[in-house]
């Protein structure tokens, strides 16, 4: 079960409390954003949510604004274990393989 969070709109304390509640409710992972209201796939947002989620052993799926291979790599480097992107074909087309 995933919990979609509009992480860019929340403070660090709110993210930490949310992660605690999510872990207690049996959530499997947190997703940074729907991508509709905010761009949650940026490295800063991913890192903030990943820090809060790590305390509770929850992985993070980065979503919202990931359009290129470098965006995806930056999200993973910031702490995402998954990427959500509707433009996956263009992302993969930019991969160095």
Low-confidence stretches: none
Major sheet size, sense and barrel closure: 4 strands, parallel
What overall geometry do the principal axes of the alpha carbons give?
Answer: elongated
Structural class: alpha/beta
Q: First CA to last CA: what distance? A: 32 Å
Give the mean pLDDT.
94
Could you state the CATH homologous superfamily?
Answer: Aldolase class I
Q: Under the CATH scheme, which architecture would be assigned?
A: Alpha-Beta Barrel
Number of helices: 4
Number of domains: 1
CATH class: Alpha Beta
Give the strand content: 5-15%
Q: How are the strands of the largest sheet arranged?
A: 1-2-3-4
- According to DSSP, the number of beta strands is 4
Q: Work out the radius of gyration.
A: 13 Å
What do we call the CATH topology? TIM Barrel
Succession of helices and strands: EHEHEHEH
The level of helicity is 40-55%
Please describe what this structure looks like.
41% of the residues lie in helices and 13% in strands. A four-stranded parallel beta sheet has the order 1-2-3-4, with helices on one face. Helix 1 packs across helix 2. It has 97 residues and is of the alpha/beta class. The longest helix has 13 residues, at 12-24. It has one domain (2-93): TIM Barrel (Alpha-Beta Barrel). It contains four helices and four strands, in the order βαβαβαβα.
In short:
The protein is an alpha/beta fold and 97 residues long.
What is the strand and helix layout of this fold?
Elements: E1 2-4, H1 12-24, E2 29-31, H2 43-54, E3 60-63, H3 69-77, E4 82-84, H4 88-93
Helix pairs in contact: 1-2
């Amino acid at each position: 079960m995933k919990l979609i969070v509009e992480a860019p709109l929340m403070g660090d304390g709110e993210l930490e409390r949310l992660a605690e509640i999510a872990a207690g409710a049996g959530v499997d992972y947190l997703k940074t954003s729907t991508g509709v209201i905010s761009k949650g796939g940026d490295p800063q947002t991913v890192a903030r949510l990943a820090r809060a989620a790590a305390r509770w052993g929850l992985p993070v799926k980065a979503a919202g604004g990931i359009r290129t291979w470098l965006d995806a790599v930056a999200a993973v480097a910031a702490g995402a274990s998954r990427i959500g992107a509707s433009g996956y074909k263009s992302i993969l087309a930019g991969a160095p393989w």
